[in-house]
Amino acid sequence: MRRAIIIGGGLGGLTASIYLAHAGWQVQLLEKNKTLGGKLQQVNAAGFHFDLGPNTITMKHIFEQVFHDFYPINR
Question: What are the phi and psi torsion angles at 72 (to 5°)?
Answer without folding.
Answer: -65, 145
